[in-house]
Amino acid sequence: MHDRSNGTRATTAAARSSRGTHPNAGASSAAPTAARPSRGGRAATAEVAGIRITSARRVIDAASGIRKLDLVRYYERIAPWLLPQLRDRPVSLVRAPQGVGGETFFQRHIGRVPFPGVTQHEGLDPGHPPLLTIDTLEALIVVAQMDAIELHTWNAHATDIERPDRVVFDLDPDPELGWDRMIEAALLTRATLADLGLESFCKTSGGKGLHVVVPLTPEVGWDDAKAFSRALAHHLAASRPTQFSATAGAEHRRKKVFIDYLRNARGASTAVAYGVRARPGMGVSVPLTWGEVPQTTGGAQWTLANIDARLADCGDADPWAGYGRVRQRLSAALTARLESDAGDAAP
Ligand code: ATP
Ligand code: MN
C-alpha cells in the first residue's frame, strides 16, 4: 500500500533520525527529503519532495505556532499512510492562504492557478469542471504548497464513480455532552452495524467528533447507499432517543449525538484519514482500533503537535488493519430491516 514510486531523493540518516518518525519509518523512500530553508526570515523558501515551498516559515496557526513547512513536512512524512486513502478518490481541498482563522476556500476544481501533478478527471461530474484526485507524493506536496490544509474525499473511486465503496457516519456531539457519551454512541453504532453483519472502522475527525466508516464492495449506487445510511441513522435515533438524533440543527441534538448520514450522497466528502484540519491547534483525523476508542478524549486529541508520538506508538501496525480484506455489501433487504426495526430496542 505504500508509495515508493515518487522520485524522492535519498534520505540521509540525519533526516531520518529527525522528528519524522511515522508508522513506516525507515521502510519507505518517501521518508523526509532534505528541506533547505534559505536565508531570510519569514519568507524563506524550502524544497520538499522536489517541490519549492514558499513562505515556509510563515506561522499558519497562531494557536500552536505551527508553520507552513511543519504542515508540508507532515504531509510528506505521512504520505505512505495518507496516499492510499487519497489515491483515485475525488478530493475537495480546504485552502487557507491566510492560515487558520483566515478566509478559507472549499475547492473541488482547479481555479485560475494550476496544481501541477494533481490528476483532473474530465467528464466525471457532468456539467462541472474536472474533479481532482491526489495520486502521488508530488501532488500532495503541491496542494500543501498551495495552502490546502484539509483534504476531503468522496466515498467512491474515480474509476468506479457511480458505486460507493464505503458509507460514513459522522458523529457530532452536542457541546454539553461528555465525551464518554460520544464513546458510547460510537460503540453502539458499531454494534448496530455488526448486527447487520457489517464491519466498521473508527477515526477521530480532527475536530469535534468521530467518523465511523463502513467499507463496501462497490455494488449498489449512491441512492441505495444513502437510503441505507439514512435508515441506520433513523433507526438509532428511534431506538435510542436519549442518545441519538438524526435531525440536523442544534435544537434537535441537545445533550445527544447527532448522527449525520448526509456524507453519503453523490458529491459529498469527508475529511480524509491522516489529514489535518484548518482549525486552531490543527487537529489530525486519526484512525483507531475499536479497542482504543474507549480511551479517547476528544475529536482533536491528536494534532500536528502530538501526532508523531501517536504514529511512533503505532509503529508498523495499521489501526485499520483488515480494512482492505473486508468484503461486504449493502442490499435493499438490510435497509428494509432497519426501517421495520425502527423503534425496537437496539442491541
Ligand atoms: P467535526 O468533528 O468537528 O464535526 P467534521 O469533519 O465531521 O468535523 P466539518 O468540518 O463540519 O465536519 O465538515 C463537514 C463536511 O462538509 C466536510 O466533510 C465537507 O465535505 C463539507 N464542507 C466543509 N466545508 C464546506 C464548504 N465550505 N462548502 C461545502 N462543503 C463543505
Ligand atoms: Mn462531524
TrEMBL record:
The DNA ligase D polymerase domain, residue ranges: 68-316
CDD domains assigned to the protein according to its UniProt record, in alphabetical order: PaeLigD_Pol_like (cd04862)
Recorded superkingdom: Bacteria
Record-linked InterPro entries: LigD_pol_dom, NHEJ_LigD, PaeLigD_Pol-like
One Pfam family, short name: LigD_Prim-Pol
Gene3D superfamilies from the UniProt entry: DNA primase, PRIM domain
Compositional bias ranges of the Low complexity kind: 7-43
Region (Disordered) location: 1-43
Entries under NCBIfam families matching the protein: ligD_pol (TIGR02778)
Protein name: Bifunctional non-homologous end joining protein LigD
Organism ancestry: Bacteria, Pseudomonadati, Pseudomonadota, Betaproteobacteria, Burkholderiales
